[in-house]
Specification:
Layout lengths: L11 E6 L2 E12 L5 E2 L7 H6 L7 E11 L2 E6 L15 H8 L8 E3 L5 H4 L15 E3 L2 H8 L6 H14 L3 E2 L6 E3 L2 E5 L8 E7 L2 E5 L7 H4 L6 E2 L5 H18 L2 E3 L9 E6 L2 E6 L4
Parallel strand pairs: 5-6, 6-7, 7-8, 12-14
Antiparallel strand pairs: 1-2, 2-4, 3-13, 4-5, 9-10, 10-11, 11-12, 15-16
């Protein structure tokens, strides 16, 4: 018999945003290494991470978000790493949903921030079947056009485009006019990391929460040093400018953020700190 006495429970934490319940689901983590970080200080980042009590080999947390409320079926923002295309770093989303008592067929909508594998692999299972059989998906036109209607030359981009076709093929799409996707959820363009990289603003009963996608991949570094990029940025200069603009805006507006690579349990405010910024975790009450 398998010994499961030391198996960790899924990482989940639920927040009340207006009349909505937002669950942060930790899908796992993976190491990236300093070569994945671009435009970094010449003396490296290990010393900075050591001082911040973080692994000296940069490590990405991966989160998925579930929104529940009256008048709509549960909504997922991104689907994590899955188990179809990333066998060496299997995601825990389906396990977490089972732990919460939510069946995959209950999911009504999947909103995708962008089409890097750790955000869409979880759409399908090992056999190519839909993990969320009744869900419709939303992805920005700019993102779809970039990956599926552009002639890529780099092998990893070519492979990613093929993986995207496989993952999206079984799903029906949401055709949303303007920025309003669902009642209380608005698409917020955050271009740079990818051409159609998109955040989602949730507004409910006076509360606001912006799911900001990969504005940060390693928050401990990129909040303090917004000029540091990531190897998968399609347009580094635009990604860095979008990050700086968002940091200024959220600081001024005291806007609450949630990111798939924020450190669990994700929800944070932003404050100015020296020449950079600092994420301040929301107090869980």
């Amino acid at each position: 018999m398998m010994d499961t006495s030391h198996k960790l429970l899924p990482g989940i934490l639920q927040w009340k945003i207006g009349t909505k319940k937002v669950t942060v689901i930790n899908d796992g983590y993976f190491t990236a290494g300093e070569p994945y970080l671009t435009h970094a200080p010449t003396n490296g980042l290990g010393h900075f991470l050591h001082g911040a009590f973080r692994p000296e080999v940069p490590t990405l947390t991966t989160n998925v978000f579930l929104i529940e409320g009256a008048g709509h079926a549960p909504i997922l923002i991104d689907t994590g790493m899955g188990n179809k295309l990333a066998l060496d770093m299997e995601g825990r989303l389906l396990e977490a949903l089972q732990f919460m008592g939510i069946k995959p067929e209950a999911i009504g909508t999947v909103l995708l921030t962008h089409l890097h594998g750790d955000h869409f692999y979880g759409l399908i299972g090992r056999g190519g079947e839909k993990n969320f059989p009744n869900a419709k998906i939303w992805i920005s036109d700019a993102e779809e056009n970039y990956w599926l209607k552009t002639a890529h030359t780099q092998p990893h981009d070519i492979q990613n485009a093929e993986d995207i076709k496989t993952a999206l093929q079984p799903y029906q799409r949401i055709d949303a006019a303007g920025g309003d996707i669902l009642d209380g959820i608005t698409a917020v363009p955050l271009s740079g990391h990818t051409p159609g990289h998109t955040g989602f603003l949730l507004e409910s009963d006076g509360d606001k929460l912006l799911f900001c996608g990969d504005i940060f991949t390693i928050p401990a570094i990129q909040a303090a040093m917004p000029e540091v990029g990531f190897a998968t940025d399609v347009d580094y200069a635009l990604a860095a400018q979008t990050r700086k603009t968002l940091l200024e805006k959220t600081t001024d507006q005291r806007l609450l953020l949630a990111g798939p690579h924020f450190e669990f349990p994700s929800l944070s405010y932003v404050k100015k700190q020296g020449k950079g910024y600092q994420l301040v975790p929301k107090q869980w009450l």
